[in-house]
Each structure stands twice: as C-alpha cells, then as structure tokens.
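Hey, resending since the last one bounced:
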Amino acid sequence: MQLLILVLALLLGEAWSSEYNVIPRFLFRLPATPLTDEVFLQTLYTLITIGLIFYTISTVVFSSVNFKNYKRTMKELYTTLTSFTFSMLYIFFATDLLFSPNFFAASGILYFFLLLITQQIFDLVYGTLNSISTLINNLKLQFTQLFKVSFSVGGIIILLFACSPLLLMKAYTSNRDVANFVTKIRLALTQEKYENWVLVNSVPDITFVQPIMAQFDPNNDDFVYVLERHGRLYKINYKDKNDKILVLDFSKMVGEVDMENGALGFDLHPDFGQSSSENKGYVYIYYTDFSAVTGDQQTNRLSRFDLTSNDIEERNSSEYPLIEFFRPSDGYHNGGSVEFGPDSFLYIAIGESSEPSVHQTIDRKLHGGIFRIDVNKVGGEISHEPPRQAQETISQGYYIPNDNPFVGQSNALEEFWALGLRNPFRISFDPETDKLWLGDVGSTRFEEINVIEKGGNYQFPFIEGFTPTDFEKPATLIGTEIKPKFYYEHTAYERSIIGGVVYRPNKYPELSNNYIYMDNYSGRIYAIDADRDILENPVTLTRSEQVAQRGITSIITSPTGEILATSLGHSQIPTGRLLKLVPATAEFLDIKQQELKKDEEQTIQEASMQIDIAKVYNVNCARCHGVSGVGDGPDSELLEAEIPDFTSSEFQTSRTNEELDLVIRMGGEAGGLSFEMPPWEGFLTENELVEIIDYLRTFQDKKDPSQN
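The structure tokens again:
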C-alpha cells in the first residue's frame, strides 16, 4: 500500500513540477531541469527500490496494522521521509541523473496528502468515520500524533536529515567552494573504473597538431597517413614507428581553423600506390576554406590531390576541386567523412551547414546527407554525367552512379544517397556485410548511430532519436523514413558522438562483431553488438585523457586488427596523437603511466602559452551563444533554456565574475540555471576558464550603438 501511494505521488509530482515551480523562487534560484521520460523512469526505479527497503524495515520494526493506528501511520510518514531523503542524496551524489528539487518537493507534498486521504478511506472501511464531526476529530487525532512524532528525538533527527538536500542545493547554487566539492564527489562516485582497456600512443615518439583522421595505405600496410586539422597530411612508417613525413600542406587554403572548420576527412584511392594505375597518387580531402582569399565567405571543398611527385610544392599545386560550395560563415555542421566503398564509389558525409532552408530537400544543395559519386568516371552502364549542379555550388570531375536512389527524378541532385541528417561526422563500412555505419552528431538532446540505406531519410529535423521536435514533418516525405539504430540522450558529460567501426578481426576476440564508437565530450569509448536488430546496452571500454574539443575525432581499424584513434590535443602545439586501444596489461599500463608524465610536462607548456581566447569561445560556446554573443547560435532555437545576450547591459551588470565562474566551471545547474549549460572544468584549461570570463566582458563594447 505504501509503495502504491509512493508511486502515485511520484507520477503526480512529475506532472505538477513540469508545469509549475513548487519551491518558491524567492527562497533561491533552482535549476530549470525538466525530467525526460528515461530519466524519470530511472528516478522512479531508484525511489521505489530504496522505498521498498525502508518499508520492509518499518514493517519488521513497527509491525503492520493496516492504518488502524494513527501513531503507526505517522511513523510510516517519517519512514517515507527518511527513504525520500536517502533517495535524493543518492541521486544527487552517486548518479549522473539530472537532479530536480522541484520534482522531489512536489512528490513529497503529494505523498503527505495522499497518505491522509488513504487514512480517511480506511477509517471509513473500519467504521470510525461516519460523519463530518468524526472526520474533524480524526484529523485532529492524526495531527496530534504527527506533532508528537515530530518533536520526539527520532522525529527531530529525521526532520533535520530531511532538510539536508534542500540546504545542500542552496549551498551548491550559491557557494563556489561547495559546488566544487560536491562536483568532485559526484565525479568520483559516478565515473566508471576502466580496468580492461587502455589507450596508448601507437607511434610513441610522434605527435601532431590536431590530427583529425588517419587512413592506411590500401596497398601497403606499412604506412598510415594522418591528416591534421590545419591542412597538413603526413605519411608515417607504421611498421617501424618512425618517419613522420609531410606529404601535403594546403594550410593556406584552410585558413582560419575555428568553430568546426578545417580539414575534416580524407581517403586514398583504392588504387593508391599501384604503379600501373592512373589513380596511383590520388588522395581525396574534404575541408573548409576560411582563408584570407575568401574573406568572411566560407567555402567547403572536396578536392583531389596527386601525391606522385617528389616535390611538395607540385603536390600542393595539384589540387583539383570536385565539389565546392558556399555556406554561412558560422562554421558549424560541416560533416566530415570521405570514404571509398566496397563498390569503388566515393561516399561523402556533409552536414546541413546551418541552413534550415535545405532541410528535407534534395533539389537545392548538397547538404544534410550522404553523397555517392563515381570519381573514376566509368560511364556506360555504370555511371553518367550529373544532369544539374546544386545551388551556389561548383562541381566537376565525377559521374553519378546509375543506381543512385534519386537518379531520373525531376530536379533532384542525383549525388544524394541518403538524407535527413544533421552533422554526419564519421562513416565507415562494415568489412563483412558492407553496411554503411554513421555517427550523426545531434543538436541539444540526442546523438544517433545510423545504418545508412540507399534512399534512406533519417528524419532530421522533425525527429531526433525517437522524439518528435518542433519542426513539422513534410507532407510528402522524400525517400524511405528510417529510425536510428541506436541513440542516447545528452547528459552534462555526453553530448557529441564520434562514429566508429564495426570490428571484425580476431586480434581482440572479445570485441569482434561490435561497433566501436565514442563520445567526444566525455572521452568514453564504447562497444555495442553490431549484429543485433536492436542495438542496446553499450559497454564502456575506456576513457581518453583528452576530452571535449581536444578529444578523439576518428576511429579506424588497422590491417593487422588494431583499433586506432586520432586525438586532437592542443590547437597550437603538437599534443595530438595517433592512439591505439589495447588490453590493460602490466606492460601497457606502464607505458600509459610514462605518457601521463609527459602530459604533465605538456600541461606546464600549455599554461605558459598565450591563449587565443576568441577561438576557445567560438569552438566551445558560440554554437549556442553565437559568435557575437547575442544568443543566436545555430543551436539556440532548439534549446529549452533562454539564452542570455552577452552584449546587454542587464547581463553585464547582473552577473558577477564569481557567478560566471561558477556556471562556466560547474554547469548551469550549479548556478540555478538550465542543465543544458554544461560544466567546462576538466574540459578547458585553468587559464582558459579564467580568461573566458574576461572575454565575455568584452561583448558589451562590441555591440552596435544603434541597437542600444
């Protein structure tokens, strides 16, 4: 009976707290934390489990008298209060569930009244309630017992204990030291311990400046090519773990590397290195051009370079653009992968480029999808010339495969293989089934793993995960609507998927037949059974040392069955690495400890460097707050929280540096704001955390006087 009352109170409490502020705002600001269905169910499970334990104990200690004794009923109320408090503290400290004080307050109040109502029902059943006067008398007796229990020693202790979560939240939202202390406890209790796998440098003495992706020579296993985000391609002798050779430098074309710009993906032609083929030196690279030549105009470009020459200048000047298009200069959602498929066609993953007008269209621009082209220009029964070009786009040097899904459709851009994607950053082919796997970076709530099918429509922007958004579904849907294979919801630490690989080799049998992927923000690498119809229960393998915008950006499988990953590192000094995932044996753990010591030395070097804080802001903050700080970032309209205008005098005068520091370090919840503002401590360096506050103070000076 107590569990039934508790569950009913929780269900009604969720509905009440989602619509109204149960705890008055004049007491203190509380986080605006709506409970999603998944979080609510986990919270419900926790409360029921802990409640069942306490109700069992109370039955043994007090015996069960079925509401016949008012004193016993009031003791049951205090049992629930104790159980409730333990549950709140457990959720707050020992889980990564979003904590909602309003929900707990609403549920507690409702439980009290539901308990009183249940008591009256039993009084009626027992015949002790037969008139208004007896109802009043019974209520007096119940409240008398309530006060007696409340002022007993045990009652006072329980009431003080019950106040602790509220007092803790008050201190957490108003005192930076308390917030820091609590956050460290939460991280210590909620961070998993990874004992089976570890990441080490695969080429011990070689580092890079923001490596974005790696690919092995398709015809010579001894060599791996690593692309740096700034526009440099290196050849590494992977067999001997040496010889970092610069083979291409198009950094002048890349220009400003900010937001999500830069070199993003590449692949070597399947005939690369075969002396008899005219394709023997071809590499295909997708990058953003934000250089001095183009000024404020950003151009995204898929280019072919020829690496056969012995002279690097000749190799640099061999660029042949296949696709180039103009896009808004905010720099977000460019996509990134370039992969040759088993069919020898080239597949390119391109984001929606912050252009809502092209969502769910295939007749305007090459945005928001996977594109399939024939760079060999075979012709005949295999492929044909493109019948038309996309808007504001120049394309050349390739044909359209005849079996592309939208070939022959009126006004269609026949390059489309699939659509309805937001920011498809990494794609890869399953070497056994040839299925195309994709990690699609979401907006404000969900990250997706998709298996791409010919003509598939993956529902962005009208559905993300399995949840409809505020965008309307088109009346006439292009292609075949397909749901994600797997998705997960954002937490404070999980919010940016990096698509990986289906692992089929036998080098690590425990990982075989799993899809290996990661989350860039948390640094966690996961394995999930790739052969199941419904993907579920991913296993965390390990966590990279570098996270957020300095973390892992690609995962590949080597020809010998190793799992390799590129990790960005610092934007200005060579701290990026080509890592490999290995079992946590004593040998590799020792290597890891040595590398961590080197990391400490690099941290000291980073601390002494002059920081380009504008870049730090643009990469990490402008997605929501906008480059100009007015709150107009590409994701701002998708957030439930109100985005502040940094240029307004109201913001500048109402926020102290201490308050800004608290929210930036610990996240919005720590300052009584939205959970959608993530915590940045641990992701940014100490110098960056300090300087970004000064940078926010400069926005008011940048505001157009005519807007005041």
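The chain has a mean pLDDT of 88.

Sorry for the duplicate.
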